[in-house]
Amino acid sequence: DAPSVEAAEASLRDIAARHGWTFVFTSDPGDITAANLRRFKAVFWNNVSGDVLTLGQRAALRTFVEKGGGFAAVHGSGGDPLYVWDWYADTLIGARFIGDVDEHQKARIRIEDGASPITAGLSPDWAMLEEWYSFAKSPRGPGTTILLTLDESSYKPVSALRDLRMGDHPIAWTRCVGRGRSFYSAIGHRPETYRDPDNVRLMEQAIAWTIGALPSDCDTKQKAGPDK
Fold first, then answer.
1. Cβ proximity of 214 and 117 under 8 Å
2. Phi-psi category of 214—alpha, beta or left, where left has phi over 0 and alpha has psi -120 to 50?
3. What are the residue ranges of helices labelled H in the chain?
4. What is the pTM of this model?
5. Which of 205, 219, 226 is nearest to 68 (CA)?
6. pLDDT tens-digit series, residues 36-76
7. At 223, is the pLDDT very low, low, confident or very high (cuts 50, 70, 90)?
């Protein structure tokens, strides 16, 4: 997925320039240390998948978030068919990927939480061509705010081999994790999505939310997920 990773990085650089934010880009998991993370307000997982962190690096990221750091992730970062880190899947992301339909399809995106600062200004008739993820169950629950859902009647989540209908089909949400904030969007397989104005706005406002530049009700909400 290198083209998508590169397109996302270009979009993130533009976002950083607009706000005067400092982003540091790395492909080295050895940079995920407690000392390094103390320099930042948030971590952005750009289509990161697989078993990429050592136990010590996992502990550093978990501590960073639970003590008030922000975390944002897109698409492939929640798209592993096999998870080896329960806390990441069940608490930080909050959903387990089960598959996607074979072909890219155009689908309608519903704004569920129009009052959230993350969804402010998004088009009410947003639709896009994408690789649409399905999850074992909806992340909806305590400590989670669903931002966007998929209109399953607008595309075909069923193929000859599998039925990926969820009924309740969130594709972007936030989680309150300890004293920290987590955002995940399943959008982002196609490089073109990182030039889509609505998706760029979503990412931009989500990053602002994770670093505390936009208001959050995480302090008053029940925290999300099991303690694993």
1. yes
2. beta
3. 2-19, 34-37, 55-66, 86, 197-210
4. 0.94
5. 219
6. 999 999 999 999 988 999 999 999 999 999 999 999 999 99
7. low
The residue assigned the tokens 């208001």 is 215
Q: What torsion do the CA atoms of 92, 95, 96, 98 make, to the nearest 10 degrees?
A: -150
Q: Which residues of 203-219 are buried (b: 16+ CB within 10 A; e: fewer)?
A: bbbbbbbbbeebebebe
Q: What is the pLDDT of residues 146-162, one digit of tens each?
A: 999 999 999 999 977 88
Gyration radius of the chain's alpha carbons: 16
- Beta-bridge mates of residue 110: 149
- Pair 184, 74: CB distance under 8 Å: yes
Q: Token match 């008053």: residue?
A: 220
DSSP secondary structure letter of residue 213: S
pLDDT at res. 227: 43
Is the distance from CB of 181 to CB of 85 less than 8 angstroms?
no
Question: How confident is the model over 166-179, as pLDDT tens digits?
Answer: 999 999 999 999 99
How many other C-beta atoms are found inside a 10 Å radius of the C-beta of residue 41?
A: 15
Burial class (CB in 10 A: 0-12, 13-18, 19+), 83: middle
pLDDT value of position 8: 97
Q: Which amino acid is at 40?
A: F
Tokens of 167: 């009924």
Phi, psi dihedrals of residue 118, rounded to the nearest 5°: -75, -30
What is the phi/psi pair of residue 91, to 5°?
A: -110, -55
Closest to 147 measured CA to CA, from 180, 177, 186: 186
Q: Decide: 135 and 152 in contact? Cβ < 8 Å.
A: no
